Every structure is written in C-alpha cells, then in structure tokens.
C-alpha cells in the first residue's frame, strides 16, 4: 500500500508540471490581454507610457517560459503569487473560497453515494418490475442533462415555485453568516450536484448487483434458505461495492466540473467565479493554481479509489 501511494505521488509531479506549463501557454495564446483586464475601462485614459510601465512591472513583457520559471520558483518557496484580476495574493483567494467549494463538493458526493446505493439496490432487487424500469429510464434520461439545467429546474421548482428553499448565496440579505443560514442555502446546490452525479452510479450499482446475484456464494446463500434481504445486503452488495468505489474515483473530474457549474448558477462563493475571472483576465498565477487544484483532486480521487479497492478486497494487487 505504501508503495502504491509513493508511486502515485512520484508520477503526479510530472503531470502537475505539464499541466501548469500548458496553462501558461494557453493563457499566452488567449485573445484576452491581461493588461486590459488589469486596467478595466481606465485603459482608455491611460497613456502608452503608463501601460508599458505597468506591463513591465507585472512582468508581462517577459517571454512566457521565463514567467513560468519565475512562478514555479515562487511556488516551490511557498509564494503562490498575486492575482492580477482580484488584486490579492492567490493564497488569500484560496483561503477564502476553497473551503466553500470543498463543503459543496463533499456534501454533493456524499448525497450521490448514499442515493445511488439505495436506489440502485432497490432497482436490482426488483429487477424487471415497474420500479426497476422507472429507475433505469430516469437514469438514462438524466445522463444527458447538464448540471446547470438541473440547477435551473430546481430553482424554478423549489425556490421560485414552492418557496421552500433560498435561490442563491450563503445567507439571506441582511442576515449574519451562521451555520443555520449556510445549511439552508446549501441544501439545494448540494442536492443538485449529487443528483447530477447519480445516474451513472445508480445504473452501475444496479448492473453490479445483477452480476453478483449470479455468483456462487449468493446462490449458496439462497440455497441455505436465508431471507432475501440478507442475501442482497450481506452477500451480494459487498461484492458490488468494489467496482462502485472504482467508478467513484473515475467520476471525480465530472464532480469538479459539476461543482463549478452549480456554484455559478447558485452564486455559491467558491472557486467557480474565480476560475471564470482568472480565465478572462489571463491571470496566470490564479488560473494555474486553480487548474492544479482540480488536477490534484482528480489524481487524489483515483488514488483513494485504488486504496479503497485494496482495503475492500485483499486479493486486488497494489503493484499496478
């Protein structure tokens, strides 16, 4: 297990370096001029000399490879740089926004896992029945619906229509930030994020359980006269958990993308708006760090899925 973790960490280093360099090169090829984004509308009142001076101060007159090496040296020394688009240190931007994104993504993933295990097990248990057909049809239908569409439908139904939940933000207008306010405003975006990630998980749990029902140990449990509930939950479901855990790790990129979209729709103060702002402003320091965080989340999700697979089934090799 330690060797698996060590190998993944070593392999992650060149991946992160390549991603960070790619972000710098893509930002340099962007049609957006960072100096225009830095000045805003005041660019029309600035003289050419002032623009050239600010461009030199920001290091935008230097070649992209040199800017990348300067940024990389600062990161290795603990300095993430200063965001030009937000006029703040990148570390401060992350400290303010990242916890809210982690809260939303964590709650959404937890809801998706619990919901998928329950509904997928129910569908497999009632294979061929009307409930199984309904769940399967809805699962396939939801696979093609983007998270932002689900978010807009949820707002129209539960916020504007029924008035049960707030539309957006962390708190109501004029209310102080507190656990109750955050929890109330978290319900709808977390539910939307979890639901948008559930179709693949539900269908996968159903299919894995149907395959487990044909295995010898499940057939033997039924032959011994055990109740169907015991057969499903104690014999078949544990067998289906191994591929389910692997799929969760593979779904991390979709979770990251879904979280960004959901944050934008619900005005959740996470990293989503920072990603959009940094991309439009070609803000190299902030954009690169945010992209590296997303890449690290994907790599970490894959690693945790493999570690969980080894722990759930000791027969799985940790050498690969």
From TrEMBL:
Q: According to its UniProt record, where is this protein located?
A: Cell membrane
Keywords from the named record? Cell membrane, Membrane, Transmembrane, Transmembrane helix, Transport
Name the GO cellular-component terms. plasma membrane
- Pfam entry (one): BPD_transp_1
Q: How does it sit in the membrane?
A: Multi-pass membrane protein
Q: ABC transmembrane type-1 domain location, by residue?
A: 98-305
- Name the source's superkingdom: Bacteria
According to the record, the segments passing through the membrane are 102-125, 145-165, 185-203, 232-253, 289-312
Its Gene Ontology biological processes? transmembrane transport
Instruction: Kindly give the Gene3D superfamilies that the UniProt entry links to this protein.
Output: MetI-like
Give the family this protein belongs to, as stated in its UniProt record.
Answer: Belongs to the binding-protein-dependent transport system permease family.
Q: What is this protein called?
A: Peptide/nickel transport system permease protein
Q: What is the organism of origin for this protein? A: Actinopolyspora xinjiangensis
